[in-house]
Amino acid sequence: xxKRTRTISRLLAIAIAAFVxxxxxxxxxxxxxxxxxxxxxxxxxxxxxxxLVFFMQTGFAMLETGLIRRTGAVNALLENFIDASLxxxxxxxxxxxIAFGTSSGGLFGTDGFFLSGAMTIDAGTITFNxxxxxxxxxxLTFFFFQFAFAATASTITTGAMAERTDFVGDLIYSVxxxxxxxxxxxxWVWGGGWLAQQGFLDFAGSTVVHTVGGVTAIVxxxxxxxxxxxxxxxxxxxxxxxxxxxGLATIGTMILWLGWYGFNPGSTxxxxxxxxxGLVTLxxxxxxxxxxxxxxxxxxxxxxxxxxxxxxxxxxxxxVAITAGCAFVMPGSALIIGVIGGIIVILVAEAVxxxxxxxxxxxxxxxxxxxxxxxxxVGLFGQAGLTLAPAGVDAATRVGLLMGGxxxxxxxxxxxVGATIAFTAVFALVMFGALRLAGRLHxxxxxxxxxxxxxxxxxxxAAIMPDVxxxxxxxxxxxxxxxxxxx
Length: 487
Hints:
The protein is mainly alpha-helical. It has 2 domains: about 40-115 and about 125-445, Orthogonal Bundle (Ammonium transporter fold); about 450-480, no CATH class. The protein has helices at about 1-30, 40-65, 75-100, 140-160, 165-190, 195-200, 205-225, 245-265, 275-305, 310-325, 330-355, 365-380, 410-435, 445-450, 455-460, and strands at about 105, 110, 120, 125-130, 130, 135-140, 475, 480. Helix 2 packs parallel to helix 4.
């Protein structure tokens, strides 16, 4: 019987291989690879890396869900899932135009809403227009890559505000971030805005994506206030609750590391310079590795424990930190940037705790603290021959301070970081303040303050593990707690 099964398996494998060769083999050999246009190659590259960036949504969902308590897992999963859907619509309708439309004083774009310039229809013929700054890419391809980045910014915020944000409030702020706050900073840096004109360097988003997400996150967490579990009966500040599933958190982090190979190398937006792609990929790897190792050993020397959560956040810290300079620094510098990021993330997380701000996943420490560090690091480690300069400025003068250059580049980086923090913080204060006034910032406290009722019960009537703890039934404001069947 086993012999027959093996024979059938072999025949099936041969049949599948023959089918693949019959369908695809002729095309592969008939077409000389050199004959493929660079535009086609670049389009495939950008789409594939964009798919990797989009897959990071899975990583964020798993990481956040694993690090928080089991009783908020359903809420975290749905928020991470629906944020991508909301951002897709908001960025298509408004955000892309603000980010990459015709500039108004270098502050924001004024056209291209609903991707109005992406296609031209003339006498029934449709022409797919190119993106002016990258003529090998159609606007539609470029949009998808940028949308995947935009979805990341609001997803960062959900982690810091986990387990206590009103679900409708989450929907609202996700739309606003995808439509306005994130695209404004994109325009400043990548859309030809005023920071780009000053020569500010952020290759893949330490400032544009991570600092925006991190600053928005810390403002939201502070305005929400802590979860009830963080305040003891005597008013003392309680430690973070233990993560409910470190397996999920670890897998989520590994997915994010994988996705970063779309995030950073994909930001070349083409394959014309293969050496640059290789450098960016290597720097991304060394940044992540340096961050993970630094956090692992730094935490061990302090606690005498090999800390998994610290190591996971350390790898993300290194990735965030190297994102700005991955195309502008040498590999040795990338490792140093990652190592410092791995230490910064722990120190910043502890500072946030001392301020009694409840950030369940360390979102600000990872994305805000290390996004700021990574952007400033370009001004320290920017390598001659890799850095860029605005029109009329000799690129040789824009070299990192520690690499033989002047302070010029560091000053520009400081200005960019400061302006981004100021704008994002004020915008977030207004946005979350309006939600609080409307009663849509914090989930209904009258219900969730009951020790037996959690956000999954109230908002979703579901539990991540119903066989362990069934969801409570809430009907017309009357709460009935389903009995627990396990611990």
